[in-house]
């Protein structure tokens, strides 16, 4: 009798603890977003979003972070595009051409998972040593290539998860109608999975825009908006980081305001990808 | 005759396109496959200059970091990294395990509907934002409340601050893997346990966790390696003092922070860039080994339960 009660009590206790830990996670997210908005929103202004830094910007004088906003968009768009050009064929190849060689495909997946786990600072250091080897200087192009390398595994693996779910009958039907494999890839599989592929692209874009460690070495920092691929570029995460290390309160305020801009970007991307993936429910992780 | 020609030219076009696509697909796949080897070679190439002058063991266990006089001892940084990473995992692991069990075994659908986007958004928040949050919330919390509680006057920029921020960052990552792990365990197992009269909690304790142990361990291994390489957020709150830390309230200087913090001056001091690249190489190898072992464990477990 007593033992039974003890058992019941144990279960009850753990149910409460489990619920609390779930609640903690949700609360932490709210706390993060709320505290950054609370601190940053008052300093967000129109001038800040539409001007490049002027003389004395880093001592609290006039100017804005337009250079970082535009720079980040250039960099992430370029990197996402490059990663897409390399990543989509790999994902299609794994699911169309290699469909009968599952062992090989699983090995490639294993490889990609390993690549996904490599920290972005290592990609940054690698990009830097390649730059030295080729005699390049810090530039938008070097940043784009480094970030693209960093997001390729993310993009391929998430596209692969979508393409995996295409029924095999579709492939066999197209083959029997005389399509070539590249036609099946781009016309049948690609079209079938467009919502899921868009989600994968948005996910990678979010990673690209938020990452700071990989571009620290390669993209540099500047007060101007880059006009060519060979110029260095400012980025939002680095702009936040640099402004926050300043001892001047006005500059720090602006760092918090820049953080609000970055959070807004991330939330918009997250909502967009949610809209896309709702049209494509098969791939969703169900609890 | 005319139609025959046109037919043939379309056919030739199609075959050409097929060949071009296949070629590009092979090249793209090749790029992805050789990338990790390229990274290793690239970093090794840059760090060779330092390795020629000092032995690796010497570098790893020497305590002196004085780039100006050519002394590069990584020991303080490695110890800092271990402190921050292990502490972060100790905080994150129980929360993740309990939440994963809750979400897979007990939770109502509305909880799932809320938690799914929460985990996704947590995973998508950039590390700089986590750093900003750490400076805004965690650092003052440690210096104003937690420090005085233990009778210490500290600035708050400490290993503990880094570990707390890091633990939040790895929670969505570990949680997603744990949920996958619990889903691969066959339903029949828990059903037969329930049929024998065990309570649901007993079933979880003796069947689910026992069966999922390799998966749970590897989820923690993956989380550990993710935490080990995290840079900017940790760099912002951990204090960055070159000293061997002996407690959680002391400032630390983990390896990734070392690399990120000194890129500005590394070209002006001889061998400095080489030392930083060696740090990146160490990071790369440690993370790779951890990832490799954990993934193998997961694959083995999935195979067994199928």
Task: Using brief descriptors, characterize the structure shown.
heterodimer, A: 287 residues, mainly alpha, MetI-like fold, 2 domains, globular, disordered C terminus, B: 306 residues, two-stranded antiparallel ribbon, 11 helices
Give an overview in words:
By secondary structure, chain A is mainly α. Chain A has 2 domains: about 1-45; about 50-280, MetI-like fold, CATH 1.10.3720. Chain A has 11 helices and no strands. In chain A, helix 5 crosses helix 6, helix 6 packs antiparallel against helix 9 (about 195-210) and helix 9 runs antiparallel to helix 11 (about 250-280). The longest helix of chain A is centred in the N-terminal third of the chain and has 39 residues, at about 1-40. Chain A is globular and about 65 Å long. Chain B is mainly α and about 300 residues long. Chain B folds into 2 domains: about 1-55; about 60-305, MetI-like (MetI-like fold, Orthogonal Bundle), CATH 1.10.3720.10. Chain B is built from 11 helices and 2 strands; from the N terminus they run ααββααααααααα. In chain B, strands 1-2 form a two-stranded antiparallel ribbon. In chain B, strand 1 and strand 2 form a beta hairpin. Classes of the chains: A mainly alpha (about 290), B mainly alpha (about 300).
Largest chain-chain contact? Answer: A-B, 88 and 91 residues
Question: How far apart, in Å, are the first and last alpha carbons of chain A?
Answer: 35 Å
Query: What distance separates the N and C termini of chain B?
Result: 59 Å
Number of domains of chain A: 2
Total number of beta strands of chain A = 0
Based on CA atoms alone, the radius of gyration of chain A comes out at 23 Å
What would you say the CATH architecture of the largest domain in chain B is?
A: Orthogonal Bundle
**What number is the mean pLDDT of chain B?**
86
Q: What would the CATH topology of the largest domain in chain A be?
A: MetI-like fold
Number of domains of chain B: 2
Shape assignment of chain A: globular
H/E series of chain B, N to C?
HHEEHHHHHHHHH
Count of distinct strands of chain B: 2
As laid out across the biggest beta sheet of chain B, the strand order is 1-2
Query: What does the oligomeric state look like here?
Result: heterodimer
Task: Supply the CATH class of the largest domain in chain A.
Answer: Mainly Alpha
Question: Which regions of chain A contain 5 or more consecutive residues with pLDDT less than 50?
Answer: 283-287
């Amino acid at each position: 009798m007593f033992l039974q009660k003890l058992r019941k009590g144990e279960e009850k206790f753990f149910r409460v603890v489990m619920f609390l830990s779930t609640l903690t996670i949700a609360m932490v997210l709210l706390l993060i977003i709320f505290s950054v908005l609370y601190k940053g929103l008052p300093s967000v202004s129109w001038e800040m979003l539409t001007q490049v830094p002027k003389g004395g910007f880093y001592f609290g004088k006039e100017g804005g972070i337009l250079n970082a906003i535009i720079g980040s968009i250039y960099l992430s768009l370029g990197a996402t595009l490059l990663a897409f050009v390399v990543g989509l064929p790999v994902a299609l190849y794994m699911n169309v051409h290699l469909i009968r060689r599952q062992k090989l495909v699983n090995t490639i997946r294993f490889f990609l998972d390993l690549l996904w786990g490599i920290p972005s600072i290592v990609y940054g250091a690698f990009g830097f040593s390649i730059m030295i080897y080729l005699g390049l200087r810090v530039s938008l192009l070097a940043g784009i290539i480094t970030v693209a390398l960093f997001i390729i595994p993310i993009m391929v693996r998430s596209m692969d998860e979508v393409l995996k779910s295409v029924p095999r009958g579709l492939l066999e039907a197209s083959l029997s109608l005389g399509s070539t494999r590249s036609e099946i890839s781009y016309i049948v599989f690609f079209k079938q999975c467009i919502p899921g592929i868009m989600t994968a692209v948005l996910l990678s874009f979010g990673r690209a825009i938020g990452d700071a460690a990989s571009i620290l070495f390669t993209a540099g920092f500047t007060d101007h908006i880059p006009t060519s691929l060979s110029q260095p570029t400012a980025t939002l995460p680095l702009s936040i980081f640099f402004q926050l290390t300043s001892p001047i309160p006005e500059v720090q305020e602006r760092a918090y305001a820049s953080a609000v801009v970055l959070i807004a970007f991330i939330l918009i991307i997250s909502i967009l990808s949610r809209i896309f993936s709702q049209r494509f429910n098969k791939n969703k992780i169900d609890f | 005759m005319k139609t025959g020609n046109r037919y043939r030219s379309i056919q030739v076009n199609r075959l050409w396109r097929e060949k071009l696509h296949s070629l590009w697909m092979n090249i793209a796949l090749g790029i992805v496959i050789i990338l990790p080897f390229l990274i290793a070679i690239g970093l090794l190439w840059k760090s060779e200059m330092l390795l020629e002058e000092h032995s690796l063991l010497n570098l790893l266990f020497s305590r002196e970091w004085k780039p100006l006089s050519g002394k590069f001892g990584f020991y303080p940084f490695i110890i800092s990294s271990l402190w921050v990473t292990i502490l972060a995992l100790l905080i994150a692991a129980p929360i993740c395990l309990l939440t994963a069990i809750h979400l897979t075994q007990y939770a109502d659908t509305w909880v799932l509907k809320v938690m799914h986007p929460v985990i996704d958004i947590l995973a998508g928040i950039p590390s700089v934002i986590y750093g900003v949050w750490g400076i805004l919330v965690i650092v003052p919390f440690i210096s104003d409340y937690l420090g005085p509680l233990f009778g210490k006057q500290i600035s708050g920029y400490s290993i503990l601050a880094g570990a707390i921020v890091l633990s939040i960052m790895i929670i969505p990552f570990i949680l997603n893997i744990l949920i996958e792990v619990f889903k691969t365990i066959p339903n029949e197992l828990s059903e037969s346990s329930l049929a024998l009269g065990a309570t649901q909690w007993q079933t979880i304790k003796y069947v689910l966790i026992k069966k999922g142990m390799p998966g749970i361990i590897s989820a923690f291994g993956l989380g550990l390696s993710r935490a080990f390489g995290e840079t900017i957020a940790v760099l912002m709150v951990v204090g960055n003092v070159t000293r061997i830390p002996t407690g959680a309230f002391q400032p630390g200087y983990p390896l990734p922070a070392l690399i990120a913090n000194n890129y500005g001056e590394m070209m002006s001091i001889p061998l400095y860039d080489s030392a930083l690249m060696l740090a990146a190489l160490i990071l790369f190898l440690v993370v790779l080994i951890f990832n490799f072992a954990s993934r193998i464990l997961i694959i083995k477990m999935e195979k067994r339960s199928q």
